[in-house]
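Two proteins, back to back. First:
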Amino acid sequence: MPGARYRAPARAFRKSSDVPAAPGARRDGPDAARRCFEPDAARRCAMTCPRCGRAQPVEAGGPFCAHCGQFLVPMRWVASPPPVDPSRPVPPAPRQPYAGPPRYPSTPTWGYPALPWQRAGSEAGSRPPVEMLLGQAGLLVPMLRGLAVLAVLSAFAEGWRYVLLLRSRTSALDASEVAASDALVGAASWVTVLLTVAAGLLLLYWVLGALRASAARTGRLPARSARTVVLGWLVPGANVAVPGSVMAEIEHAALDRPPGQRPTPSTLVRVWWGLWASNVVLGVLSVGWLLREGAQARADGVIQHALLDLVVAATAVVTARLVTELTALIAPPRVVPLPRVVRVTAPVASTVSPR
């Protein structure tokens, strides 16, 4: 009718507290309703009429629906877990029966990458110094033992040549025997030289790793820098004294001795030091002896080469022993107890009668 005012149904004026709340849920109070009915409230609340399901226009105001007159109560339901009684035991989850190995309808296209096993937390390319030292020692020790065998073979070849030189003073030699001796001397000598250089470089690399590993084990900095060690190992003159000092320092740090104490090398280190110095001196003399001419100089050169080969073999054997000992001091091997029989008892007689 003209001039009549719209009156909302009576049920539209029920309070928000009359609406029952779900268990474990809470409802915002009248402050939220007041905020939603402020200017520009529709943009914030985005209310939808629960009766007609139509959204309220932006220009609409008041607590009633602009379409059907339903009283709008802004609410926000928040679910919360029900209270847990700590005295009540939690029942275990039922265990599902074993259904057999997994089965796929087709061949899987996924899989693990082809990578070696790594320890938990380790990153690729970041191996600890101790593991690197163990790997270097595992390659160096067999190489040194092989060098010892080749050096002994080269010394035997030089001895055979010297015997031929002595026989040539009184009688003629067979050409095939001389050719075989020359071939054996040449092959053994060159292979021994090449393997000596390779083992020396790997030994230097192991020494640098041992310095880092021993320093990391004791929580101190290395006594020498890598550059100082390399120069002392390669410069003539210094390579007689520096290698023995470096080995003594590695042994001193591996035994957890005080850093301010003067290193006292063990008997094994002293023997190795003497053999190393003898090897260097004999190597220089052998190279210088090659510049001399004459039959007697050649005969003396054969003796020197044979002696040098024997010293190289002894140095290689002692070096392998020293590398093994120092590696075991820096990275002690893990002792795995083996099972042993403590007691043997007679079997219990079966009480089940045969059928």
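And the second protein:
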Amino acid sequence: MYQVSFKLKKEAPRLEIDTLTPDCLCLCSAEELKSVKIWRGKKEVPASEHFEVKGEPGPTPEETMVVIENCKPFVHYAGMFMSGGILKIKGSCGNYIGSRMTGGLIEVEGNVGDMVGEEMKAGKIVVKGNAGNYLGSAWWGDTTGMTGGQIVVEGNVGEMCGQWMEGGYIRVKGNAGDFLGVKQVRGIILVEGDAGYCCGAGMTYGRILVLGNVEILPTYEPDGTYEQLDILDEIFKGPFQLYKGDGAEDGKGDLYVRK
């Protein structure tokens, strides 16, 4: 696989790097890579003003790996609209990572901000650290969250994870904040730790599985127990109590809680 690296050398209050993806960079020459435009606040500037650029992209996105080195939280929109290839982020990153992506793999070694994977349709995002609010959710004012793909967070996530989710799979290996799966329509959310208040509020369909502690809303009704669950060919040992809801929305969603 061909590889291009962008090592951050000059900080700024805000950088937007949605152009530094395999889709945008494949077929670029060495000189063209340096002149690719990014946003510094409200101004477009060449990527080479803030990054050391090395490597050679492949002829297609699928044959190209982009590596962002020394990344910082003021860097936003990494991997937005990405459709293929690999994007590796060494360090922490800001908001809108993998926003509306349709394919490929994004790996982040550190933490990420808000709205990661919002409205994504396919592909996979792996976050080694923590994630902020609105993971896999809908864009501000929209009512359709992620519809496909996978997001795995090895740390904790903030509030409103999976808001308006309509498909795909979110796995949180730590804890989740309040309003997990709020207005969820389809898809699967797995939290290996605890979940905050109002889990599944307004949920109509879909599945939420919480292995730690969670407070059940009074609009959910018990509906049987299970000794184990199969989530994407992985077995989780119970026993689990199944709750159906959200009754306030005449919902038929499944909330499984380990006893």
